[in-house]
C-alpha cells in the first residue's frame, strides 16, 4: 500500500484504499448508502460472478470451470489473487493465461477451417485498461510464444486520468472549487471522461458535459483527438 507507484494513483480513485488488521489491502466503497469494506478479491469476485451468470444464460447450462486471461505483466501473487476471486465466484480455474496468448488462441481457432493455413508469425498488441502487452507468436497447428514485452503502468485508464486532471484544473480555474474534494462529483467526472474517450474512437471531437457537477454548477468542455492536455 505504501509503494510509490500505488501512491501515485490514489488521487485518481473515487474510493479509499485501506489496510485491514491482517494487512490485506481493501477499499471503502459506498453501497446502498452504506460504507462497506471490501478486499480487492471480493470486488473482483462480484464481476466474475456476473460474467459467470451471463455465460450460463447464454449457453443454458451451469458453468463450473474457467480459463482466465490476465495482463502479461501479472506476477505470481497477482495471478493467485485472481484465482482466489474466482473461487469466491464459484469458479474452478483450470488455467491462468496471458491476455495476448488468449487473443492468439482465438485467432488460431477462428482460422482452423482454412485448409491452406501456413505457419505464420502473429503480433498481438493488447492495450488494456491498466497495462500494455505485446506478444509475438508462431501460429500454426499450435501456438508458440516467441517473445513477450509490455508496460504494466500504461493503459486506457492513463488516458482517462489525463482527461480528468485537465477537467479538474479547468473547473478549479473557472469556479475556484475543487472537484477532488467531493467523491460523488469526482466519480461523475471520471465516468464522463471515460465515455468521452470512447466516443473519440469514432468521432474527431466530443463534449464532456455534466449537469450540476458540483454545488449546482454545470460543466462542459470540448475535446478532440488533437487536444493538448
Which secondary structure elements does this structure contain, and how are they paired or packed?
Layout: H1 4-10, E1 16-19, E2 25-31, E3 34-39, H2 40-59, E4 65-70, H3 76-88, E5 92-98, H4 99-110, E6 120-127, E7 132-139, E8 143-151, H5 156-175, H6 183-199, E9 205-214, E10 217-224
Parallel strand pairs: 4-5
Antiparallel strand pairs: 1-2, 2-3, 6-7, 7-8, 9-10
Task: Name a few traits of the molecule.
Nucleotidyltransferase, domain 5; single chain; 3-stranded antiparallel sheet; 229 residues; alpha+beta; globular; 6 helices; Actin, Chain A, domain 4; 10 strands
Structure description:
Belongs to the heat shock protein 70 family. It comes from Panagrolaimus superbus. One of its GO terms (molecular function) is ATP-dependent protein folding chaperone. The strands form 4 sheets. Strands 1-2-3 form a 3-stranded antiparallel sheet. The chain has a 3-stranded antiparallel sheet with strand order 6-7-8, with helices on one face. Strands 4-5 form a two-stranded parallel ribbon. α2 packs across α3 and α5 crosses α6. The protein is globular. It has 2 domains: 4-98, Nucleotidyltransferase, domain 5 (2-Layer Sandwich), CATH 3.30.420.40; 156-224, ATPase, substrate binding domain, subdomain 4 (Actin, Chain A, domain 4), CATH 3.90.640.10. β1 and β2 form a beta hairpin. 39% of the residues lie in helices and 32% in strands. With 229 residues, it is an alpha+beta fold. It has helices spanning 4-10, 40-59, 76-88, 99-110, 156-175, 183-199, and strands at 16-19, 25-31, 34-39, 65-70, 92-98, 120-127, 132-139, 143-151, 205-214, 217-224.
